[in-house]
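Researcher: Here's a chain I'd like modeled. Treat it as a single chain, no partners, no ligands.
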Amino acid sequence: MGLSNIIPKCILSRKPQGTPDTETCGLPSAPPRLPAKRIVSPHAPSRTAIIRLAFAPGRRQFAAMAQATKLPRNDSGIETAIGVLKQRFGERLQTGRPVREQHGHTTTWIRNQPPDAVIFARSTEEVAEIVTVAAAHKAPVIAYGTGTSLEGHVNAPAGGISIDVNQMNKVLEVHAEDLDVVIQPGITRKALNEELRDTGLFFPIDPGADASLGGMAATRASGTNAVRYGTMRDNVLSLEAVLPSGEIIRTGRRAKKSSAGYDLTRLLIGSEGTLGIITELTLKLHGIPEAMSSARCTFPAVDAACQAVITTIQMGVPVARIELLDADCVAAINAYSKLDLPVNPLLLLEFHGSESEVAAQATTFGEIADEFGGTGFEWTASREERTRLWQARHDGYWALLASRPGKDTIATDVCVPISNLAEAVERSQDEARRLGLYSPILGHVGDGNFHNTVFFDKDNDEERAKCEHFIAWLAKLAIELDGTVTGEHGIGQGKIASLSSELGPATGIMSAIKSALDPDNIMNPGKIIMPG
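Model: Modeled as a single isolated chain. Structure tokens:
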């Protein structure tokens, strides 16, 4: 059966799910709306990835740079495990090439390494059953949420079985009085906030893409609200997970704090499915703010904008978002969204609190911006104006793609201490210019995290070499400035070498943990730590 017979054309025509929610800026808003009806075949690829595939023809995938090492395969074990599981799961186990390639698709430059089979799981018990069979035959297993990761996290370099948890998408318990919720891993952040809308609560972590919450925990995601609400690490109370042996464990309870034993919750958060498959999460919730205001301000140079950010944070202004767009981004957005913003570095901000608090926060930032040469400072509490203001940020990636049609891209991120932010951003711009690369910057700069989108022609050997140099150079710069090679994208396959440069002998401890929990290396092999 073809994909067009499984997924209606009206869904195929929509914008990719990586497009942020420009109406609500990632936050719930009144009045409540009924959740959109999900149209998913019992054994069909997830809608998210189908949508991305629909847009794939317009973008060239860059395979030449991919450092996705192909690992040794256990063909007989994989074949036997698939045979056993086919009898159990029937049509929910798929081996067709399009479905397999969709589950190796990573919205990035790393080449596709599809699994040998995909199983659409519906419960923790089913995940455990799949892993138990796979473990018995030493067949790799790779968890799959919505496939929005950027460093090859869902690739299958040793083959094996992809466990798709999209149908595990229920809200199991809402404890409004305790400000927490228990969910399955396949539910996305937008769907969760739709479910919570009538409670006056919301889950704040917004990585941009409408990712699954299980995947967000596995990659330790963050995003635009992290400066105020933290990352996934700060907002997960406990997890249920299936270990490489097939054993089901729970890492904690719903208490807001605990001193009981090793912190297994934090061990699994950010482990990228290499230590276990997350099957249930207990998350912290927050009250929807009484008031929100947004602001924008243009600066004469990136350094001035960064200095304004540093001062804002150091003065304790509780910004909910503070985003940097460099001049190249602003120019692209103007053309794409028909805006007329000054083509200079731009800061976009959001403030949460009471009406008086958000007004005071906006006023304080305005004074700081003026000190660093900021111009055109505007702030508003109007929902319509806030939506319009944030449209620029949300359209950034698509605007950049449209500004260089036919070019290939690499999206990468680093994070540095905020006192080193201005130096990091300026030096990255200088290096890109020196190499003759077009590399606009978007940043969640309130916590020192920024993203470079590097454009090049994959068929041009010189440009390809310059790109390779720049990505490696940027990672070294982050380490030099006491930062990290990735603030939120994760390691996956793409940054394994950089992780060793950042942490040195500590990666040996990671290898020891991996070997202890997964001696046969069946859990998402070839990610974070290479075998041996």
